[in-house]
Write a sequence for this structure.
């Protein structure tokens, strides 16, 4: 019988883990190596080894209604896209509201997690923590790993010949904090993920020239959607996910290609990806206009460095380079964990439903938030926590090891089909499908068909509106009485921070959303008709 749970890390996942344990009557102890909670969202001027690190200008890439956890909406005066300090504030409000701090031990690093000698019988874990010089060993019934995906930087120094001779400054994107000290410098940024692009737009008005090097192109979206609404309100919907699942893949690729090229033609800017979704899309408003202004110059992959220059695969080079920033991402590593538990296959992964290691007998460990959706990670993390605590309590049964392994194979096929590659992408999921799948495992998935009949306004909102987390509190275990009202008032909270001139409420929003959905809807109708005629 599981009672005590060690939660490792007090980012938003760790907070959700502590909260879920309390909800299920478990006794959590959360260890956080830094001196405060918040994880990624806690900006510091210095970089701490083994902890996440962000730049000062970071703003969330999902909007606040989508990032809110299921029973704690963001304050209505919060802006729709959150600067990092605002999201940190949300973490603190969350911890305060559910009185989580008394379960969290700050400045305490977990240095070792191992199976207890009678693990096969009891499923217990031995956890070694360190606070200053004081080392403690504690036995727990279960462990939740919430240490984040952004702590172990990839430094691909071997893949760039000559980089060791380079005389300028070389840093990883995690060491970049502010555009200070770059005046008049020539900067090369390697890698076109969210960080690489954010840093290039952050720096480009200070530096004498910014070059952004990428081997593959990438889809760039902006935050500003139709009518100035946050783009994910119309993009991250159950309906859209349903259509994507139903229509032939080629058709939905065409639709995605079409909508990403509405803002600017990726082909013209030389960054059209060959495989549309093989890399996560990124969210940045400024990139195209900075390229237009020549402040950022796109470059292909780097082939080699000299003492002062970089050479690219198209034969061109850049001389007198001052700084190279490697925005080359992160490894997923668990340096404190017994090797045999984790056996990361970069194509298949090792986690059933991205949570539980398939080769373990006892269901007493969970990996939280090791995922890459196109959507906010924290909502997924929270539902994973609810799933895991029910697993610990025996309220959720795992299938056999064989079935779990088959599940990994199926998942790999899905990713190969949808993202056109399985390479290094075991963490990727379809946002809505993945959430719904976990939710139905623990009986908290809303029954949309039934709602359409019994509470059509709510049903309509859940089908066509943004896929917000409150819906997973409408029924089943962990039901929250405020869920329905919170869903009904989401547009008020979205509009509130925009009406700061005190003007009366305007309400074009539902229409705008409807308009943006219309093409999908028509497509759906045509498809249904086609199926009917064929059948
Ligand atoms: C630059 C950047 C921008 C991002 N922007 C977005 C965004 O806009 N939207 C979005 O949804 N997601 C974004 N993310 C993803 C982000 O990681 C998640 O949103 C979320 O914050 C993950 O929370 P977490 O708690 O899982 O991990 P983290 O926030 O990384 O927290 C992990 C915590 O564990 C602690 N820890 C690690 N090892 C140990 C140990 N051995 N012992 C004790 N404590 C330990 C760390 O100190 C840290 O506090 C971004 C990530 C980065 C790096
Ligand atoms: C270590 O254990 C002792 C005794 O159980 C306890 O008083 C102390 O708070 C623990 N320290 C940490 C860092 O957990
Ligand atoms: C995407 O659209 C652009 C033009 O809008 C076109 O040139 C390109 O071939 C399309 N790519 C795919 C993969 O459909
Ligand atoms: C936001 O950024 C994080 C971290 O880079 C990424 O994992 C996530 O997919 C992004 N979300 C969207 C909607 O692009």
């Amino acid at each position: 019988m599981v009672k005590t749970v060690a939660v490792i890390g007090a980012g938003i996942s760790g907070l959700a883990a502590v909260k879920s344990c309390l909800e299920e009557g478990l006794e959590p102890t959360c260890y956080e190596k830094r001196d405060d909670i918040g994880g990624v969202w806690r900006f510091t001027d210095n970089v701490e080894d083994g902890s996440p690190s962000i730049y000062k200008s970071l703003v969330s890439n999902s909007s606040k209604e989508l990032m809110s956890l299921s029973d704690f909406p963001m304050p209505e005066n919060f802006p729709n896209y959150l600067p990092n300090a605002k999201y940190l504030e949300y973490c603190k409000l969350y911890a305060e509201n559910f009185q989580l701090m008394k379960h969290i031990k700050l400045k305490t690093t977990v240095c070792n997690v191992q199976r207890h000698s009678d693990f096969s019988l009891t499923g217990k874990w031995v956890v070694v923590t360190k606070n200053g010089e004081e080392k403690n060993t504690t036995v727990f019934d279960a462990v939740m790993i919430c240490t984040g995906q952004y702590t172990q930087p990839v430094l691909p120094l071997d893949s760039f010949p000559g980089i060791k001779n380079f005389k300028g400054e070389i840093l990883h994107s995690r060491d970049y904090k502010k555009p200070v000290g770059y005046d008049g410098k020539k900067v090369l940024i390697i890698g076109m993920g969210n960080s690489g692009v954010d840093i290039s737009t952050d720096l480009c008005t200070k530096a004498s020239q910014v070059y952004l090097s990428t081997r593959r192109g990438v889809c760039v979206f902006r935050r500003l959607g139709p009518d100035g609404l946050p783009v994910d309100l119309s993009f991250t919907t159950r309906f859209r996910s349903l259509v994507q699942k139903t229509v032939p893949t080629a058709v939905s690729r065409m639709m995605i290609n079409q909508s990403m090229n509405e803002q600017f033609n990726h082909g013209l800017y030389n960054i059209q990806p060959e495989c549309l979704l093989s890399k996560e899309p990124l969210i940045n408003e400024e990139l195209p206009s900075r390229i237009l202004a020549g402040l950022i110059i796109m470059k292909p992959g780097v082939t080699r460095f000299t003492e002062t220059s970089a050479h690219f695969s198209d034969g061109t080079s850049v001389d007198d380079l001052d700084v190279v920033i490697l925005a080359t991402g992160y490894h997923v590593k668990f340096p404190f964990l017994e090797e045999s538990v984790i056996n990361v296959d970069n194509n298949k992964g090792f986690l059933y439903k991205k949570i539980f290691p398939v080769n373990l007998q006892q269901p007493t460990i969970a990996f939280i938030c090791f995922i890459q959706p196109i959507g906010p990670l924290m909502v997924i993390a929270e539902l994973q926590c609810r799933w895991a605590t029910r697993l610990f309590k025996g309220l959720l049964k795992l299938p056999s090891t064989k079935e779990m392994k088959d599940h990994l194979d199926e998942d790999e096929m899905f990713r190969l089909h949808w993202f056109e590659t399985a390479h290094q992408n075991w963490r990727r999921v379809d946002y809505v499908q993945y959430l719904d799948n976990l939710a139905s495992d623990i009986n908290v998935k809303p029954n949309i068909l039934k709602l359409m009949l019994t509470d059509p306004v709510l049903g309509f909102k859940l089908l066509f509106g943004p896929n917000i987390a409150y819906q997973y509190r409408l029924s089943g275990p962990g039901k929250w009485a405020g869920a329905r009202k919170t869903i009904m008032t989401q547009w008020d909270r979205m509009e509130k921070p925009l009406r700061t001139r005190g003007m009366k409420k305007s309400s074009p929003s539902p229409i705008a959303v409807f308009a943006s959905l219309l093409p999908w809807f028509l497509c759906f109708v045509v498809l249904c008709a086609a199926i009917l005629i064929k059948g």
User: Anything to note?
Assistant: The pocket of 2-acetamido-2-deoxy-beta-D-glucopyranose (ligand 2) is lined by residues 105, 108, 129, 131, 134, 136 (CB under 6 Å). The longest strand covers residues 109-115. Residues 155-328 form a domain with the FAD/NAD(P)-binding domain fold (CATH 3.50.50.60). The mean pLDDT is 93.
